[in-house]
Amino acid sequence: STHSGVSPDAAHLLPRSQHGASATRAVLVAEVAAKPTPAPVANDNSFYAFCRANWPAFVVFQTCALTGAIVSGVSSRKKRIELELIMKKYRRMMDRVD
């Protein structure tokens, strides 16, 4: 069977008998399946090569940064709580003076 509007590369991928919406879907699937895969992009610049060669160092740096952020966040929370307690004591002292 001949399908109009179908490239020759995709024509051999079509099922023998299709009608209506399923035929349209079959044509679409055949067209997509017949397309060649694109060539991989060449990343041959020096920065890309440096990153590929030293990826373990980047993992270590990212882990240190994440650990530092966690420690900083916990420390900030403790300082905030401590400051709130000091401010409560200070306000009580000021209330006694008044």
Report on this structure.
- There is one protein chain.
- This protein has 98 residues and is mainly alpha-helical.
- Helices cover 71% and strands 0% of the residues.
- It is built from 4 helices and no strands.
- The longest helix has 43 residues.
- The relative contact order is 0.06.
- The mean pLDDT is 83.
Task: Show the helix and strand layout.
Blueprint: H1 8-11, H2 20-34, H3 46-53, H4 55-97
How would you summarize what this structure contains?
The protein is mainly alpha-helical and 98 residues long. The protein contains four helices and no strands. The chain has helices at 8-11, 20-34, 46-53, 55-97.
Helix-and-strand structural type: mainly alpha
**Per the principal axes of the C-alpha atoms, what is the gross shape?**
elongated
User: What value does the average pLDDT take?
Assistant: 83
Largest sheet: none
End-to-end separation: 100 Å
Low-confidence stretches: none
Distinct helical segment count: 4
Helix-strand pattern? HHHH
Percent of residues in helices comes to over 70%
Task: From the structure above, extract its key features.
single chain; 98 residues; mainly alpha
